[in-house]
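This section describes the prediction task in plain terms. A model, or a person checking by hand, is given the sequence of a single protein chain and must write out its three-dimensional structure as a string of tokens. No templates, partner chains or ligands are provided. The sample shown here is typical of the held-out split.
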Amino acid sequence: MYPVLRLMWQLFLHRKSPRLALTGTHVSHHICMPWDIDLWRELNNGRTLTIFDLGRIPLAGRVGLIGTLKRNRWGLAIAGASVRYRRRITMLERIEMRSRLLSWDEKFVYVEQSMWKASGECANHILLRAAITGREGIIAPDRVVAELGQDIAAPALPDWAQAWIAADATRPWPPMQDAQE
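The expected answer:
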């Protein structure tokens, strides 16, 4: 089940947080709840993706994106993700999440998020590709930035992010056309 109450709590906590620069970092704190764990008594990999929403949505609010989406009747769709899981997060463990807009290109925005343990170790890291969508399809990120009242060029994507974008572009679509039954 989607953690609606936890999301509402995060939105409540950050409702009066100062506005962030478009590429500013939103920091939030979370607890791995008993219903977040898997058979190995650690944060489930799928639940990790859902918990990242708890940082990304308040980030969108703090940079002004949520208001812009509502005003224009646009949506936000995740179009790809690459996750690195490096350290276990166990039940009732507290984590710090860092979320930021990394950059954008002609079609997508790229968001970077990470979860940090109390020890200072990074537990996991994700790079997301997202599309702003409207009735006419995908909305160009430059248009969204202008709607946000910003006059900023897309920051240069780091080499590792560019490599992921390039590698992902080589994947066949639709997938598994050569799969045999």
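For orientation: The beta strands are 25-31, 75-85, 94-104, 109-117, 122-134, 137-139.
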